[in-house]
Amino acid sequence: MDLWRLLRRDALRNIQPLMLLAVLAAALNLALLTSLNDALLALHDANELQRLLIVFLLSAFLWRMSQGWMMNAASKRLQAALAVLRVDLLRRALAADLPDTMAVGSSRLAQVAGPELQLLAQAVPTLVISFQSVAAIVLCLLYLASLSGAAVLIVLGFLVLGGVLIGRSVIRLELLSETIHEAEGALTERSEHILQTLRECKLNRRRAANALSDATACANALKQERHRFGAEYSHYFTISELTYYAALAGIIFLLPAVTTTDVATVVLSGHAAAFIAYPVITIVASYPSYLAAETAARSYLAVEAELKAPPPAKGPQKPAPAADFTGFSTLALDGAVFRHAGRDGVGSFTVGPVDLTVERGDIVFVTGHNGAGKSTLIHMLLGLYPIQRGSLAVDGAPVGPDSLAAYRDLFAVVFSDSHVTRQLYGALSTEDGFAEELLDLLEMSDKVALDGRAFTTVELSQGQKKRLALIAALLERKPVLVLDEWAADQSPYFRRKFYREILPWLKARGITVIAVTHDDAYFDAADVQLQVEQGGIRRIDPPVLAAPELQPLPTS
Predict the structure, then answer these.
(1) What CA dihedral angle connects 175, 176, 181 and 186, to 10 degrees?
(2) How far apart are CA 171 and CA 57, in angstroms?
(3) What would the pLDDT profile of 91-114 be if each residue is shown by its tens digit?
(4) CA 35 to CA 56: how far, in whole Å?
(5) How far, in Å, CA of 312 to CA of 314, rounded?
(6) 213-237: string of b/e by CB count within 10 Å (b at 16+)?
(7) What is the pTM of this model?
(8) pLDDT at 479
(9) What pLDDT, on a 0 to 100 scale, did the predictor assign at position 548?
(10) Closest of 372, 385, 390 to residue 535, by C-alpha
């Protein structure tokens, strides 16, 4: 069971105190039963009734306290475990190879770490009570056996028969739960598409109608599956109740027929069987919550497996000696190959073998048509895509797995789809005036300011957001800056400023710049131009920037 596999990591570790509290609550539940049964036999003894009333009230008070302690302990342990699981999933996403993380998808990661784990938080308290209910049923059956061996056999017989019928219904409920989970995922995907393309849908009625029709079909499919689940659960619940009524009827009608017994034994046995009803109904009612939690746990474990990242190390770890590449002279790909695996192995795309050397302080332009492999090449050079053949090297020495993180620390990056946040998580410092200098250089001082280690706003145009992302990247003070089609969203004026002013400004400060670009009018601004064609590269000598015309000196 995936739910128990998941919770055993933290929530169910050292659960002996919880089990003892559950058994104590079940024992106190039995004390309530026995005090009531004894009271039925002592209706004409006022003193005995008074004593049994005190026992009943004391048992009820202690039962309430033990229930509260058990639920509080379970909730505290569960919330601690969920916090660990959420952070652990993010840690695994960061540690996994980028292609694996991208294959899972950010929306699925967010769904699993958020709403689906919350299902566990909602389900586990009822599961704890269910465990206590099982203990209560066992103790009540033992008490029933002390009253009449035949009575307990009758009850067990009906419980086994009902259990077989309930088990068949449970199998159908589990299958329906999986179908509902898939239908919910399909509806969520269609809904997100509509919400993310509202402008496009408003401008194209056919698109809006088709998207809405698709979402409606998914909603109807989900409605039908939920209706089937509701009908099956009603069947499951009805069988459970009929099992209880059949057991009670068996004591009343069968017990006198199969054994010589008195009325008192029948009444007390029937009362004991009735006391089993509440824990049975509790277990039955909690099953849908368990199914939802089981599905969520299965989804969480599936995402973990797809990320292929090792679990976080337990306990204090001795840090490995950190590699230091900050004084590098060259970065290189030597015969490097990366292959994108297509869906079901079809439609794969390979970049390489690539031989590429980047000299420190150079401005390198990566050019080529869309789909040629420029972004893949950049990801390989950044160490984000694992080199499947060949090597990644610094100053001629291959970069191994233990030094890959230190290698990645050389780079500040603005991707084409870069997400801009107010918080400057990666900034080295914001108190030496460099941030203000960058805001002035990129002409953002009238739009944005710094508030501690955060921008005052990111509600800007797309081009301005890209400028803000460049400022954030430069505040990381990395020796290499990688820009993926950064100028594509800029105005003609600012595009020229970028190539003619900002790039020389960066070069003068010793920053190596690697830029993916289509702006052929400015290819002369590069020291090196690398043309990517069908997964391979060739070096092109960039055009020479024409010297400005000499102006005559002013005469006095």
Answers:
(1) 110
(2) 42
(3) 888 888 888 887 787 777 887 877
(4) 6
(5) 6
(6) ebbeebeebbeebeebbeebbebbb
(7) 0.63
(8) 92
(9) 47
(10) 372
